[in-house]
Amino acid sequence: MTFPRSDKDGVAAMIIGVDIEPDWNLPANIWLPIQWPFVARKSSSMQSASRSTFKASSVQEDASSLGFSCHPVAILVLLERPTLANRALAILPLVCGQKSSKAGDVIQIFLIDEVGAVNATPERLGVVGLWLDGLAAVAIDALEIRQEEGRVEQPELTGFVSNRDPSMAILGWEVRGHCQRQRLAIWALQWPEDSVEQHTEARLAGTLDSVDQLKNELEDLLSPEQVRSDQVELGLYRADASTFDLGAAGLVCLPHNTSDVQAIVKACVRHGRPLVARGGGTGLAGGAIPCGDRPVVIALSGLDQILEVDVEARLAWVEPGVINLDLTKHLTPLGFHFAPDPSSQMASTLGGNVANNSGGPHCLAYGITNAHVLAIELVLPDGQVGMIGSVEGDAPGYDLRGVVVGSEGMLGIATRIAVKITPNPPAIATLLGAFATVTEAAQAVTAVIGDGLIPAAIELMDRNAIKLIEDFVHAGYPLDAEAVILLELDGLADGVEAMSAQAGQIMLDAGAISVRSAADDVERALLWKGRKAAFGAISQAQPDYYLNDTVVPRTRLVEVLESIYEIAARYDLMVINVFHAGDGNLHPILAFDSRDPGRLEQVHKAGREIVEASMAAGGVLSGEHGIGVEKQAYMSLMFSPIDLAQQDLLRTTFDPNGLSNPGKVLPTGATCAELQQMHTVPEGIWV
Amino acid sequence: MTMLERFATEVGATDPVSCVGGRTQWDQAGIADASAREVSAPTGVVEIVPEEMIVRVRAGTPLVELHQALAEVKQRVALPSPAELGAERFAGTVGGALAVAHGGWRQLCLGPPRDSVMEVTYVTAAGELSKSGGAVVKNVSGFDICRLLVGAHGTLGFMAEFVLRASPVPEASQWFRRELEQGDKLPNRVQDAIHAPGSILCTGSHVFVLLEGHPADVAADRTVLSGLGFSEMAEDPPRLGRNHWSARRGSELARGQESGLEFVGLTGTGMLTANSETVPASTLSPVAASMNRRLKERFDPTGRLNPGRDPLFGITVNQETSS
Ligand SMILES: Cc1cc2nc3c(=O)[nH]c(=O)nc-3n(C[C@H](O)[C@H](O)[C@H](O)COP(=O)(O)OP(=O)(O)OC[C@H]3O[C@@H](n4cnc5c(N)ncnc54)[C@H](O)[C@@H]3O)c2cc1C
User: Fold this and answer.
1) For a Cys-Cys bond, which of A291, A375, A436, A507 suits A663, CB 3.0-4.6 Å?
2) What is the DSSP letter of A488?
3) Share of residues in chain B with pLDDT > 70 (%)
């Protein structure tokens, strides 16, 4: 079986797959230069040996269509005339897996459904075969590929990956394709022989021996296929969705259960090797980046079982690798959902949500993750396992559960989590207010809150966002507006009706040009689809983005937004504001092309100024993405040395050896950059 | 020198010291060492920002004062009010309430008191002022020391000032009551029938339901409750007891009945209260118990803060293995 070459008649191909099977035969007609994706259903015999290593989990789909709904399928996309352009842009977030030893072998490609440039966990979606002497492939702007009786609907755009994607670099692949919106896109991926070795040799020099010993031990404790040391695979785990490329993993472990995690942690302690827990890899602050002396990455996405749902107690026990949206989908038939709904909910895991104390649009009324976690089975940094928190009232003593939520994987690894489940609201109203100025929109937000209304969500999008989103998903946002507010109220029908009339009037009084209410669930889904597709939409403008996250008092939104526009203009950066306005949680997105020399550094400088402007207005460093490596150096803007020493005291009480996710959050000790000296460090970030 | 700095100086860095609020919950978490020097946190509501729904208040402020100040702007916080605990216990302070961290009737809708704490300024065992959290509604900057201090009975640091999250007082609010019949899981039926009840209290004989929110919603739910045999009440529901224990959420009534005590259960929160020293003991995993001890040792190495107090007083460490 050979794949079409990129240089042959401009044909390229793509495979998306979710599992590997030794005897998997690709259909013969993949040679046909067809225009639309060809979908091959997988046979039921997918429970091959590989399943233990690579778990196929259901592929996501949600109202925002940032996902694809086909469970086990392989999709081959063959393009007749790929548009090659010089700007690197590829649409399907793709992460590649195990390299082949020789041309002609089957290698494994991992693909992820995610939102934005997320280098998420490879094994989640599994693998497909890719033939080396062909070229590989590529992305589509696809990804609402619904599988209804083999029919594939119009694909739509999802996230993107740029040349900066670590897996691209490590493979020596170059992204040469460019996608047009609503078209199939191409990556002309090439696989230079030996590139992998060349690329990784330097990074790993000197450390492999000591890792080898640990590797042997872990292979005995677990099983060989749960311990990955292939350099390509290690490369896959060296970054997350943030803009930081600083890490290097020593080993990647794929535990199946709590005792596996415990065994890994204990082995790391014995060898004095740092470790990093990883969920979906969608973190935006670099929390899952392996910093320090080649940490062992503990990839938890294989622990993906929903263990128990107790409707009477209104709780669910889940494993940490369960995807946020999977839990909600599981609860839907029971009339419940999991309230925290980060925009990444189709790709991020409950373990990651807990570690980052994640929020989402609906956290305005329902509270962020901490308010929804009852108990955690925690593997402490020394390898002990125990339950913190309780499903029975409040656990006595100090609120250990409360400090572990949001501790960015530094106080232990969650291996089972009990979360509250929330009844679905009987009625929902979704309003779209259009404004002639961002200022009026921001004032309307303050007015709504000031009037005593607590909507389920209030999201604000500025002109740049509206334009990109409209071009991208046609959500029905007014193109003549400078800003729109998406406001949702939920509860009982009568109250919702009355409150939405009230909210609509407040917006009009604040100067709204128009206020529209979603007529039905379809329209509501479309309005939300626009909001949630915002990050993907940016790919039309620039190949890279830096999404900042600060919170300011709601009454200071206007002035801080003005500062943000001014900062972006000064650095000649496109800024897109799409944010949780109801809680003053700003998300300015700086769109850029990282291949412009010096651009990333400028972006980080602009980011710092945005943080400073937020702090000057009485804000905080992060509302939901966490500190990670991104804002570590800014901690002293918010906390005194004494405050930081107290935080460090907490950390060292849990982790006296400092092995659990080192180089994050606290600016004390070595930063990731210092630990990773062989890499260039963005100027101005590591002070 | 600010009030907070003066408080820090007063706490000092060397001798055993007890932080005194209103002494209304002095019986909680062990027996205070009477020989320790006593200090009290500064008082006063510093600032209420209604548009931000936040209040900055010093820890020594009487709870009554805080509730009154917020009532003026039609807002409230998730801390118990006099009616909920009884006037004598209500002479307490904001700091005391948060050191003990017992919630009131509305925990089901407002959440536990700790969820309303956005920022704490406190005095460390070394007598230094430190701060955790921030004065905005959403914040994940750094480790959340606030979580540790709230409910710690002053054993890790003395809280001096808080920023608390407030919320609007709902337009409509009404309690309902119904007698309990043997074997009826009435509280659960109410929880299933009402979308977002303000509170569902149960005793051995009655179930009490609070409806709060938009008048239209309260009216709709009132009909549902009537259908379940509830009637409106003019007086307050029962006060919560001094002693607490827990149950799996949703089984508060059954656990209360089993206890043989005169209890008040807070349906859906896993909390039960009674005025009795013989409430069932709460349990804790060995790992959690040892983390509690380690935290105390690290945050207060000489054991000078609130000597005699122990948040694990009377707690049973369960037999879960911790290999
Ligand atoms: C397009 C996009 C939109 C986003 N929108 C939002 C949003 O609306 N709100 C929001 O809050 N965030 C958002 N995020 C950020 C991110 O998705 C969240 O922080 C998410 O919770 C991370 O989950 P993850 O499973 O990907 O974790 P990872 O990125 O894999 O890890 C994050 C941190 O959690 C730790 N960790 C992971 N699993 C465990 C575990 N089991 N035990 C202990 N520690 C663990 C890791 O060590 C790391 O420090 C967005 C990201 C993207 C790319």
Assistant:
1) A291
2) E
3) 97
Q: Is A266 at the interface with chain B, CB within 8 A?
A: no
Rounded to whole angstroms, the Cα distance separating A568 from A547 reads: 13
Question: Ligand 1 center to residue A579 CA distance, Å?
Answer: 17
CB A150 within 8 A of CB A61: no
What would the mean pLDDT of A110-130 be, rounded to a whole number?
Answer: 26
Q: Is A312 on the interface with B (CB under 8 A)?
A: yes
Q: What pLDDT sits at residue B90? A: 61
For atom 19 of ligand 1, which residue has the closest CA?
A283
- Please name each of the domains of chain B with its CATH number: 3-168 (3.30.465.10), 172-274 (no CATH)
- 3 state SS of A417: strand
Predicted pLDDT at A597: 86
Please indicate if any CB of chain A lies within 8 Å of the CB of B193. no
Instruction: Pick the closest to residue A211 from A296, A292, A297 (CA basis).
Output: A296
Query: Which of B115, B135, B295 is closest, CB to CB, to A653?
Result: B295
Question: A657 CB near a chain B CB, below 8 Å?
Answer: no
The pairing of beta strand B283-284 with beta strand B316-317: parallel
pLDDT of residue A265: 98
ipTM of this complex? 0.96
DSSP state of B263: E
Say if residue A673's pLDDT is above 60: no
From A60, A343, A486, give the residue whose CB has the most ligand 1 atoms within 8 Å, as the site to mutate: A343
- Strands A427-435 and A514-517: what pairing? antiparallel
Q: Give the tokens for residue B130.
A: 């430190």
Mark yes or no for CB contact B138/A363 under 8 Å.
Answer: yes
Compute the Cα dihedral for A610, A611, A616, A620 and give only its sign.
positive
Average pLDDT, chain B: 93
Q: Within a 10 A sphere around the Cβ of B5, how many other Cβ atoms?
A: 13
Q: What angle do CA A522, A527, A529 make, to 5 degrees?
A: 90
User: Of the segments A103-107, A148-152, B23-27, which one has the largest average pLDDT value?
Assistant: B23-27
Q: Looking at chain B, which residue has its C-alpha nearest residue A420?
A: B249
Residues 6 or more apart in contact with residue B198 via CB below 8 angstroms: B105, B106, B108, B109, B170, B173, B210, B211, B212, B213
At residue A361, does pLDDT exceed 60? yes
Give this prediction's pTM: 0.82
pLDDT > 70? residue A7 = no
The reply to whether residue A387 touches residue B282, judged by beta carbons under 8 angstroms, is no
Predicted confidence (pLDDT) per residue in A521-574, tens digit: 999 989 998 887 787 677 667 767 888 999 999 999 999 999 999 999 999 999
pLDDT digits 0-9 by tens, A458-470? 999 999 999 998 9
Cβ distance B323 to A385 less than 8 Å, yes or no, reads yes
Cα distance from B259 to chain A (closest Cα, Å)?
A: 15
| CB-based pocket (< 6 A), ligand 1 | A 115-116, 118, 240-241, 276-284, 287-288, 300, 320, 342-344, 348-349, 351-353, 355-356, 358-360, 408-409, 413-414, 535, 624-625, 661
The mean pLDDT value for A171-185 works out to 29
Q: Which residues contact A574 (CB under 8 A, 6 or more apart)?
A: A464, A541, A542, A568, A590, A591, A592
Distance from CA of A22 to the nearest CA of B (A): 39
Q: Give the span between the Cα atoms of A541 and A537, in whole angstroms.
A: 8
Residue of A114, A157, A282, A291 with the most ligand 1 atoms within 8 Å of its CB, for mutation: A282
Q: Kindly indicate the confidence band of residue A236, based on its pLDDT and cuts at 50, 70 and 90.
A: low
Residue A274 CB-half CA count within 13 A: 26
Domains, in order of start, for chain A: 12-201 (no CATH), 206-301 (3.30.43.10), 303-423 (3.30.465.10), 425-528 (3.30.70.2190)
Ligand 1 centroid–CA A324 distance in Å is 10
